[in-house]
Specification:
Oligomer: single chain
CATH class: Alpha Beta
CATH topology: Rossmann fold
Largest sheet: 7 strands, parallel
Order of helices and strands: HEHEHEHEHEHEHHHEHH
Length: 325
């Protein structure tokens, strides 16, 4: 090897030694949130508030002194979880129905004026909107086997429901309001046999980008997209339980090879599940910090390594891993 080749090789090693640790540090650390926005006596709307991430978010916001409008289709869970909290106004809503969201807007508008006149709010405008409402796949099977009606319901709640809420509640915002859309790591890194869930969350992520860039022109609203990994919400554990493997699926053997006989237990054993509380913490961080990032991954260390590896080296790597399985 001649001198020039040796120097070139040394240069490559020097770059790797300097750049790789810096990149890993920037990738794995959470941003340093400024926490420069007071939340006390602010009005915040949270959808999907009856359980999981939405419920945890509402509880943390109440602790911060906010008044929360808790929206969910499950009226029973709303009553059960918020009956003792005076700082929460519960409103049964189906976000997939525009008329239902518009009815909720009328209730919220009246409550804002009333609570502002009573001195309970610092403004008669909404400060924040957090869209936690979402549904998961009904069973683990191939996307070509999924029922078309369920596909429509998935997009109606996860994507169109998000849009209906943004469109409808935007007129209640004041200056310097915040929109936080809950996406998913599955929207950036598709997992097999999760039907249209990954596709619907990918739509939410791109929707958030478009909305954020439109709002930049006015400087009125901050828009953030939080992308959690698997969380121990009622979509996966608890009352509803994980959907599990569809025994009638032609792909049941492949699904079992990938997820195992008990997908819920496998997620727990691998340490993949986060708590709704950890995701809610990041929601609060984005609400009260003007330097919060446009996109924020909310996951554990294992998921972050997987995400980094498979997205950095391209989809072909993950495809080859699946072939090996």
């Amino acid at each position: 090897m001649d001198t020039s080749c040796k120097l070139q090789t040394m240069l490559y090693y020097a770059i790797a030694v300097l750049i790789v640790p810096l990149f890993l540090y920037l990738f794995f650390r959470y941003p340093r949130f400024k926490h420069d926005v007071p939340l006390k006596r602010r009005a915040i709307i949270v959808t999907g508030a009856a359980s999981g991430i939405g419920l945890s978010t509402c509880q943390k916001l109440v602790q911060k002194g906010c008044h929360v409008f808790a929206l969910d289709i499950n009226e029973e869970f709303l009553t059960k979880n918020y009956s003792s909290l005076t700082a929460v106004t519960t409103i049964p809503v189906d976000v997939a129905q525009l008329s239902s969201v518009q009815s909720a807007r009328e209730i919220i508008s009246k409550e804002l004026k009333r609570k502002y006149s009573e001195g309970l709010l610092e403004s008669e405008h909404v400060f924040g909107l957090v869209t936690c409402a979402g549904i998961l796949y009904n069973s683990l099977k191939s996307i070509v086997e999924q029922d078309d009606g369920y596909m429509e319901r998935m997009f109606s709640v996860n994507m169109f429901g998000t849009h209906y809420c943004v469109k409808t509640f935007y007129t209640l915002f004041g200056d310097n309001s915040v929109i936080i859309l809950i996406g998913s790591n599955a929207g950036s890194f598709a997992v097999p046999f999760t039907s249209f869930y990954s596709a619907s969350k990918a739509a939410v992520i791109r929707y958030a980008d478009t909305l954020r860039r439109e709002m930049i022109f006015r400087g009125k609203v901050r828009v953030h997209c939080l992308n959690p990994g698997a969380a121990s919400s009622t979509m996966i554990v608890g009352e509803r339980g994980h959907p599990g493997v569809d025994k009638a699926s032609d792909f049941k053997n492949e699904v079992t090879r990938f997820f195992g006989e008990d997908p819920q237990k496998r997620l727990v054993d691998l340490g993949r599940l986060q708590t709704p509380s950890s995701v809610a913490d990041r929601v609060v961080d984005c609400l009260d910090s003007t330097n919060a990032p446009a996109h924020l991954m909310v996951d554990n260390f294992i998921e972050r390594i997987m995400y980094f590896t498979f997205t950095s080296f391209g989809p072909k790597l993950f495809d080859n891993v699946l072939k090996w399985l």
